[in-house]
Amino acid sequence: MRNGIWLLETAWRQCRQLTLALTERESRSESALSHLRTLARRVYREDHTLVSDSIGANGAGKMSDAAGIANSSSPPPQDRFAAELRGFGPLGILAIVVIAAGQILAPLSAVLVLEWTRMSRTPWREIGYVRPKNWIASLVAGITFGIFFKFLMKAIVMPLLGASPINQTYHYLVGNPAALPAAVWTMIVVAGFGEETVFRGYLFERFGKLLGRSLPAQIVTVLITAAMFGSIHYFDQGLAGVQQATISGLVFGTIFAVTGRIWMLMCAHAAFDLTAVAIIYCNVESAVAHLIFK
pTM score, two decimals? Predict the structure, then answer.
């Protein structure tokens, strides 16, 4: 009997200890679980804050980028001025008028063209200022062509048009060495540099921008610029001067339309006019004019 009671008491104590152990373990588990829940909430809050901050920063960055793009889309004042100067608005028309007024003195007009090219940020190649592959070859080709072309005009073309063999405007150069240096300088600077820069370089760029670069547009450009070039020679050389200058404008304009280079034409134009000066100075105009047609 006593043994049975002792066994029951022993079993009861063990059950109680086991119950206490399980209760303590459950309490610890609940404590650990509560701690984990608290940690999870904290992590969630911090992560949510980080995400919000990140979104805000990215949003601000995108807004900043958008503002930068918006600012970059509007050109700086210098670019707007250059674009207006090269266009056909009020500023572009004013530039054309000023350059045309400078044609009273061709070198001045050419200098204005160069300044317009710089200020409008027009590529120099657009007015034919392209570096030759060989300067000497361009110089020789230009001079040779200019001399040949002048004799062709004087001996064949102008007699066929019924022009007088004597150029009355420049007849004062006959045997006049005192007037020769100024005439030579004028033909090089005014004709070679000035007229080619304006009538081939500048006007071809303007009409090219206005009409396009197609073959029909280039033909129209050559015809218009040749007519303009011929017209300015009427006041000092009369109808014969207009005829000769118009034909020269057609030839030089065609070469420029094909090559897009102006340096050889400058040499050719200067050589053309210098040959005319030499013929007049040596008083052989009539002889050259009747070389083919007696």
Answer: 0.71
Distance CA 189, CA 181 (A): 12
How far is residue 289's CA from residue 158's CA, in Å, rounded to a whole number?
Answer: 8
CA distance 6 to 125: 119
Instruction: State pLDDT tens for residues 89-134.
Output: 888 888 888 887 766 666 789 999 999 999 999 999 999 999 999 9
Residues 104 and 2 in one domain: no
Whether 62 is covered by a domain: the verdict is no
Residue 140 lies in a domain: yes
Amino acid at 77: P
Q: Alpha carbon of 279 to those of 72, 143, 181, 253: distances in Å?
A: 61, 16, 15, 25
Same domain, 182 and 268: yes
Element counts in the chain: helices (H) and strands (E): 12, 0
Task: Round to whole Å and give the CA distance between 91 and 109.
Answer: 17
Range of the domain at 15: 1-35
What count of other Cβ atoms lies within 10 Å of the Cβ of residue 94? Answer: 12
- 182 and 85 housed in the same domain: no
